[in-house]
Specification:
Helices cover 77% and strands 0% of the residues. With 93 residues, the protein is mainly alpha-helical. The longest helix is centred in the middle third of the chain and has 38 residues, at 15-52. The chain is rod-shaped, with a radius of gyration of 22 Å.
Length: 93
C-alpha cells in the first residue's frame, strides 16, 4: 500500500475510526519517544559509570572467566531486554 492509498483509505473512515487511527499513531510516537529517551538515559548512565571507573591493568593469564561470567550475569539481571538492546546499540555506535 502506498502512502497515497493509505491517506485515501483514512479519508473514507468514519470519525470514530479516524480517532482510533490517531490514538494508535500517538501511542506509537509516545513509545518511540520513550525508547529514545531511555536510550539517551542509558547512554548518559554508562558515560557516568565509565568516567568514575578506575582503570585496570590486565595481565595475560590472570583472568577468572567463571568470575567474569558471574559478574556479567549479575549486570544483565539489572536490565530489561530493551535496555540491553539500547546499550548494545550505543556501544555499536
Amino acid at each position: 500500500m502506498t502512502l497515497q492509498e493509505l491517506i485515501h483509505a483514512i479519508d473514507n473512515l468514519s470519525p470514530d475510526e479516524v480517532a482510533q487511527v490517531k490514538a494508535h499513531i500517538e501511542k506509537r510516537q509516545s513509545s518511540q519517544r520513550m525508547s529514545h529517551s531511555l536510550s539517551s538515559d542509558l547512554e548518559r548512565e554508562l558515560e557516568n559509570a565509565l568516567a568514575e571507573a578506575q582503570p585496570v591493568t590486565l595481565q595475560a593469564g590472570t583472568m577468572d572467566v567463571d568470575q567474569l561470567e558471574s559478574a556479567m550475569a549479575s549486570i544483565r539481571e539489572g536490565f530489561t531486554q530493551q535496555e540491553l538492546n539500547s546499550i548494545a546499540d550505543a556501544i555499536a555506535g
